[in-house]
Design the sequence.
């Protein structure tokens, strides 16, 4: 008994030490930013020092919350360990931010307010500081609650709330606000539908076939070629846009080149690789492990290139306003500002990211490599489609929506299969149980088309049944076996609620913070 108490105390102490280490490391990062600003030379600007510290805090929270969408499926499908995924994501997030983060950034994310309406430089600095802090605080709260939310929506809400507080309702671009609201529905629905479509395609063409490996030799090279096209096109369009801006046609052509090369390589090697695998679903899953690792790396690179602006955009705007004494539409990004964002995102992921990685990877529905592949494909293809159609989307909502799409498709398929079994049982009532079991065995071994034909023949036979081997209670129990919830409803409600309140909550927080800062700064 005493030993059990000692073990519990030791476990509690270990958790406390881990939390202290994380908090201490994050504080050292923020203190380092302050010291850097103080030692740059010249007169110390305390507004810039505070803004830089808040920018670092925002970057930490982006890493803790948003990056989970890129690596969660790879971890949940066990293509990568948690440690390995965090290392890969941290490296590629930083690389994306530093290499492709750009030299300039739009200071007002998504054109949510009109900067010309905020002419006073001091008011503008207070506005951006409040927006940045509000966005960071909301991300911190969402991470603690285990809800992956859009960092773009968080900073948009912050800018909107602080902007309205500073310049009134007329300063906001309400059309842009409407587009943001539309993305709450568009992003997860598109992501979920595309992920579910890919999973259904894999099931129809591979896992529903008697010889899965033979089917995989034909289909997997095509699927990997499609993935190569999607990711290379996505990377050129979104990940490298700051250093190499091209149109969709050029990006798609580059993607086609990568797709052809990928197909040629994987088609020739697939026979050798599949020969060592079992003709089971797990054997086919193995073929998708390496693509999942590549997807985690590439999505992280593109995320670092694009979403670093959420952390450093307001900071770059404040730095520009302080140095030039004016509000500009686009602000230059000094290297030190870029490093604050890159290091902060990577550090936030390493310190606080595991909680959200587990939520996305296994806290919503069970994932394997094939399902993770479908989610990664949905993330890339949805962004490509949305950018061409001019639709506002959120990468976070797309990825999480794709996870839900995969889970709900699995629920539907399982329930549909259950109804097939019920039909077979009903048409065999009164028969010897061995006959029923033999028929069920043939049914389970049949491919998708043959299953349909077998059911059609049963329904057409209309055999009379006088005696039932299944009672009403047994039939009800059989239905419950196949009507399981494979998506956690509690996770669904928690995440959707967090999505809906992200913009209004961060806006309200930013408005309160703006009034607080203005009250402190005015004589």
Sequence:
């Amino acid at each position: 008994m005493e030993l059990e108490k000692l073990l519990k105390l030791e476990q509690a102490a270990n958790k406390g030490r881990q939390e202290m280490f994380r908090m201490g490391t994050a504080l050292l990062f923020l203190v380092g930013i302050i010291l850097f600003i103080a030692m740059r030379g010249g007169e110390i600007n305390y507004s810039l020092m505070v803004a830089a510290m808040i920018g670092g805090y925002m970057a930490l929270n982006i890493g803790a919350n948003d990056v989970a969408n890129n690596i969660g499926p790879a971890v949940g499908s066990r293509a990568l360990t948690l440690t390995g995924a965090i290392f890969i994501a941290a490296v590629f997030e930083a690389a994306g931010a530093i290499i492709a983060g750009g030299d300039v950034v739009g200071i007002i994310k998504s054109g949510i307010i009109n900067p010309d309406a905020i002419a006073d430089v001091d008011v503008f600095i207070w506005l951006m500081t409040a927006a940045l802090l509000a966005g960071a605080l909301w991300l911190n709260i969402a991470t603690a609650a285990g809800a992956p939310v859009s960092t773009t929506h968080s900073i948009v809400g912050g800018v909107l709330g602080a902007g309205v507080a500073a310049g009134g309702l007329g300063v906001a671009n309400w059309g842009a606000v409407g587009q943001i609201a539309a993305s709450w529905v568009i992003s997860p629905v598109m992501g979920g539908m595309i992920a579910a479509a890919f999973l259904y395609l894999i099931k129809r063409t591979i896992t529903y076939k008697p010889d899965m490996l033979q089917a995989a030799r034909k289909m997997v090279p095509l699927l990997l070629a499609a993935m190569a096209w999607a990711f290379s096109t996505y990377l050129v369009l979104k990940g490298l846009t700051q250093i190499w801006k091209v149109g969709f046609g050029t990006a798609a052509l580059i993607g086609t080149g990568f797709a052809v090369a990928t197909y040629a390589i994987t088609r020739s090697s697939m026979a050798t690789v599949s020969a060592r695998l079992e003709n089971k679903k797990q054997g086919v899953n193995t073929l998708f492990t390496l693509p999942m690792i590549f997807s985690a790396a590439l999505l992280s690179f593109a995320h670092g290139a694009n979403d670093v602006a959420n952390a450093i955009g307001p900071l770059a705007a404040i730095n520009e306003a302080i140095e030039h004494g004016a509000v500009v539409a686009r602000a230059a990004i000094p290297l030190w500002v870029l490093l604050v964002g890159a290091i902060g995102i990577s550090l936030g992921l390493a310190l606080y990211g595991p909680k959200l990685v587990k939520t996305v990877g296994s806290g919503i529905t069970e994932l394997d490599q094939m399902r993770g592949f479908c989610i990664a494909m949905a993330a890339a293809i949805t962004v490509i489609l949305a950018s061409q159609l001019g639709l506002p989307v959120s990468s976070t909502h797309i990825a999480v929506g794709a996870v839900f799409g995969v889970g709900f498709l699995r629920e539907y398929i399982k329930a549909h299969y259950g109804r097939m079994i019920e039909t077979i049982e009903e048409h065999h009532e009164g028969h010897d149980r061995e006959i029923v079991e033999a028929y069920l065995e043939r049914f389970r071994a049949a491919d998708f088309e043959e299953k349909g034909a077998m059911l059609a023949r049963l329904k057409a036979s209309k055999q009379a049944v006088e005696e039932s081997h299944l009672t009403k209670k047994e039939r009800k129990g059989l239905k419950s076996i196949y009507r399981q919830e494979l998506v956690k409803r509690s996770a669904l409600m928690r995440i959707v609620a967090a999505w809906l309140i992200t913009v209004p909550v961060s806006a309200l927080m930013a408005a309160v913070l703006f009034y607080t800062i203005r009250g402190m700064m005015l004589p």
Q: What stands out?
A: Residues 20-412+486-521 form one domain. The two ends are 64 Å apart (CA to CA). The longest strand covers residues 104-106.
